[in-house]
């Protein structure tokens, strides 16, 4: 790095040193503690399941190689673990490179959701813990045709994708990503050839169709999480970071303010999330074909608290699904459950899931070598 850039760090260092001062000026400790309900959790066991996902990618001229994975782990007393892992190694010809992470993240959400559901149906956990927020599962973009193709198809590709929703529902748990299964791809190719003739075999057109179908698959899985688990488990999301300012209405996030002043275990009063501001716009064709699914997803209620459930430093954002069939959920029970699973301020099941699911650059290099892509052009040859 050039020394001219390093010199600029001194100015930033001075600004960072003023953050703590400005925080003390913005808000009084008493105001913060008045929002904090002190509670000393006691470890309370419930059988629990946690999930996480991971992806990695590499760019070449004309395409990306990506690896994506979803993982779930279940725990019972006496050290009994069960796990479910799903994944995909694939290529994408997505042309909107600014949206590549959005696309692969949607596939990751699909795989971790499916892994969690498949293992949940087998084990019937009383508590399901998602890595990160539940509301984040609703902020997922619908892959548009122009992500893949620089031509106008007037909605025909979305219409074709929607013709196979029934196939997805029928085979939802038979494949890691059902939309990418050999059987579905064969059917979709045949339909594309009928519609577009000589263009039907193009990789970009096929992927534009399958990506929409994968998105529809994800929505069906999300619906099952909230409406198909008949034993009514507690479903929560636990996040280490948050940028919300709803409690204190200051320039710094509520979580940062709480970390500054709160030392004892406890929680904040539950706040309901305005899901109308969080939810994505459903695909028009999916809304038309799966009206009841869309209506019920729009009715999902989620609330959140900030909670500190052991003597460590960590305060977590905890989002809680407001299950109309299980209204006896309260923050103190949740903190007791999390205290049981806590290691250094974070649930060890989430730590295990993170470790097991991670796809490192080294892993990607091995896959690249196995695929004989080491010598493939990637656009930086003249700079190396």
Describe the structure.
- This protein is of the alpha+beta class and 384 residues long.
- The protein has one domain (38-354).
- It has helices spanning 3-26, 29-34, 100-123, 156-162, 165-170, 182-196, 203-227, 254-261, 275-278, 284-289, 291-298, 331-341, 348-357, 361-370; strands spanning 36-38, 48-60, 63-76, 80-92, 127-131, 234-239, 266-268, 271-272, 302-308, 316-321, 342-343, 346-347.
- Strands 1, 2, 3, 4, 5, 6, 7, 8, 9 and 10 form a ten-stranded mixed sheet that branches.
Overall shape: globular
Number of strands: 12
Cα gyration radius (Å): 23 Å
Low-confidence stretches: none
Quick summary of this structure?
The chain is of the alpha+beta class.
What does the secondary structure layout of this molecule look like, with pairings?
Layout: H1 3-26, H2 29-34, E1 36-38, E2 48-60, E3 63-76, E4 80-92, H3 100-123, E5 127-131, H4 156-162, H5 165-170, H6 182-196, H7 203-227, E6 234-239, H8 254-261, E7 266-268, E8 271-272, H9 275-278, H10 284-289, H11 291-298, E9 302-308, E10 316-321, H12 331-341, E11 342-343, E12 346-347, H13 348-357, H14 361-370
Parallel strand pairs: 2-5, 5-6
Antiparallel strand pairs: 1-7, 2-3, 3-4, 6-10, 7-9, 8-9, 9-10, 11-12
Helix pairs in contact: 3-7, 4-7, 6-7, 7-11
């Amino acid at each position: 790095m050039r020394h001219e850039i390093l010199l600029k760090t001194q100015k930033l260092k001075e600004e960072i040193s003023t953050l703590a001062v400005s925080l003390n000026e913005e808000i009084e400790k008493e105001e913060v503690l008045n929002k904090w309900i002190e509670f000393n959790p006691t470890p309370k066991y419930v059988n629990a399941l946690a999930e996480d996902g991971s992806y990695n990618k590499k760019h070449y001229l004309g395409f990306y190689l990506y690896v994506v994975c979803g993982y779930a782990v279940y725990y019972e007393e006496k050290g009994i673990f069960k796990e479910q892992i799903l994944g995909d190694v694939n290529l994408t010809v997505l042309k909107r490179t600014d949206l590549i992470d959005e696309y692969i993240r949607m596939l990751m959400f699909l795989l971790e959701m499916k892994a969690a559901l498949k293992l949940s149906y087998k084990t019937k956990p009383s508590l399901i813990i998602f890595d990160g927020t539940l509301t984040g599962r609703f902020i997922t973009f619908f892959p548009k045709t122009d992500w893949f193709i620089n031509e106008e198809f007037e909605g025909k590709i979305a219409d074709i994708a929607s013709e196979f929703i029934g196939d997805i529902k029928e085979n939802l748990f038979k494949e890691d990503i059902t939309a990418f299964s050999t059987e579905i791809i064969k059917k979709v190719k045949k339909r594309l050839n009928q519609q577009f003739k000589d263009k039907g075999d193009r990789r970009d057109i096929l992927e534009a169709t399958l990506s929409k179908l994968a998105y529809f698959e994800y929505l069906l899985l999300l619906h099952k999480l909230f409406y198909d688990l008949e034993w009514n488990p507690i479903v929560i999301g636990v996040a280490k970071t948050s940028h919300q300012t709803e409690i204190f209405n200051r320039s710094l996030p509520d979580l940062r303010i709480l970390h500054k002043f709160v030392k004892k275990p406890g929680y904040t009063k539950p706040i309901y999330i305005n899901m109308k501001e969080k939810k994505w716009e459903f695909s028009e064709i999916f809304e038309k074909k799966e009206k009841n699914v869309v209506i019920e997803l729009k009715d999902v209620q989620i609330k959140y608290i900030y909670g500190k459930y052991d003597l460590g430093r960590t305060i977590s954002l905890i989002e809680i699904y407001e299950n109309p069939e299980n209204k006896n959920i309260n923050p103190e029970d949740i903190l007791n459950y999390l205290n049981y699973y806590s290691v250094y301020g974070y649930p060890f099941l989430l730590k295990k899931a993170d470790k097991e699911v991670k796809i490192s650059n080294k892993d990607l290099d091995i896959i690249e070598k196995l695929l004989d892509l080491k010598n493939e052009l990637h656009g930086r040859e003249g700079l190396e």
